[in-house]
């Protein structure tokens, strides 16, 4: 599990194609790999990946075809920046919201509105997820825990503060970029519970 508070960005150092996916090497921020163990879970742009070693030189991951098909990791290029977060433990301060690292869909950046110190981004989403996306709800964008702004029929607004822009790769997004989106699991659970309750009441 992750908190959605990105530790920093890492640079894609190497991408190697494999028969059933790719392997990637990432240069991580200083100190990120302290006490890292082989098999540890790390959020890479919001995708939960397993560390292949202790990351003493570079972080190394295998990414299978299933993950590539569901995320924006298939679009990675050497030199690209990705958001990184270590998995939480019992003493971790949860500054964002709990995230699993399992991506529901990739959204396209429809528009970026630049302001003096902040940015608003408009993200598209498939209509089948509209009941889980509403104003003031939580959402994960490239591994960042964010609050949803205005919601339209097939897109929503995200308001990015200077701290988020400085620590993450969201400042480098352009119109047309694809981002990994994870819907808050608590929201899904509440919506589905309400739907089942209402359905049960109607059937009486």
If helices are DSSP runs of H or I spanning 4 or more residues, what is the number of helices?
3
Q: Examine the coordinates and then state which fold CATH places here, giving the name of the CATH topology of the largest domain.
A: Elongation Factor Tu (Ef-tu), domain 3
Give the CATH class of the largest domain.
Answer: Mainly Beta
**Strand pairing plus helix content: what structural class?**
mainly beta
CATH architecture title of the largest domain: Beta Barrel
Work out the strand percent: 35-45%
What spatial form do the alpha-carbon principal axes imply? Answer: globular
Number of strand elements: 12
Instruction: Determine the mean pLDDT.
Output: 95
The separation of the N and C termini measures 39 Å
Low-confidence parts: none
Query: How many domains comprise the coordinates?
Result: 2
Defining traits:
single chain; mainly beta; Elongation Factor Tu (Ef-tu), domain 3; 2 domains; six-stranded antiparallel β-sheet; 3 helices; 12 strands
How would you portray this structure in words?
This protein is mainly β. The chain folds into 2 domains: about 10-85, Elongation Factor Tu (Ef-tu), domain 3 (Beta Barrel), CATH 2.40.30; about 105-190, Beta Barrel (Elongation Factor Tu (Ef-tu), domain 3). Helices cover about 15% and strands about 40% of the residues. The chain has helices spanning about 65-70, 160-165, 185-200, and strands at about 10-20, 20-25, 40-45, 45-50, 60-65, 80-85, 105-115, 120-125, 140, 145-150, 155-160, 180-185. It is globular.
